[in-house]
Design a protein that fits this description.
It is a single chain. With about 110 residues, this protein is an all-beta fold. Helix content is about 0%, strand content about 55%. The chain contains no helices and 11 strands. The strands form 2 sheets. Strands 2, 4, 5, 6, 9, 10 and 11 form a 7-stranded mixed beta sheet that branches. Strands 1-3-8-7 form a 4-stranded antiparallel beta sheet, with no helix packed on it. Strand 7 and strand 8 form a beta hairpin.
Length: about 110
């Protein structure tokens, strides 16, 4: 079994930064591919950023230039650096790693 835990969320003012972490433990050989999703109340879950099996990255248009996804396979950890945060970034953020293992999410709230 694989256990995934996100952390690093919180309340921040618009223009601020947060760094989310996602740690995977258990019977997992590699966390790649990996991705971050988010879901705001009343909205569907949407892809924010991903690292594909070949190591390339892709981002939602709404976060390009502001968010950066990275992964540390040695630590089985995925990160999401979020800069220049906007109120519309407010959501529950989830990560998913290889094998389709999801965490419980971490809340990000951006005040205007």
């Amino acid at each position: 079994q694989v256990h995934v835990v996100e952390s690093g969320g919180g309340l921040v003012q618009a223009g601020g930064s947060l760094r989310l972490s996602c740690a995977a433990s258990g019977h997992i050989f590699s966390i790649n591919p990996m991705a971050w999703y988010r879901q705001a109340p009343g909205n569907e879950r949407e892809l924010v950023a991903a690292i594909t099996s070949d190591g390339s990255t892709n981002y939602a248009d709404s976060v390009k230039g502001r968010f950066t996804i990275s992964g540390d396979n040695a630590k089985n950890t995925v990160y999401l650096q979020m800069n220049s945060l906007k109120p519309e970034d407010t959501a529950m953020y989830y990560c998913v790693v290889r094998g389709g293992y999801w965490g419980q999410g971490t809340q990000v709230t951006v005040s205007s």
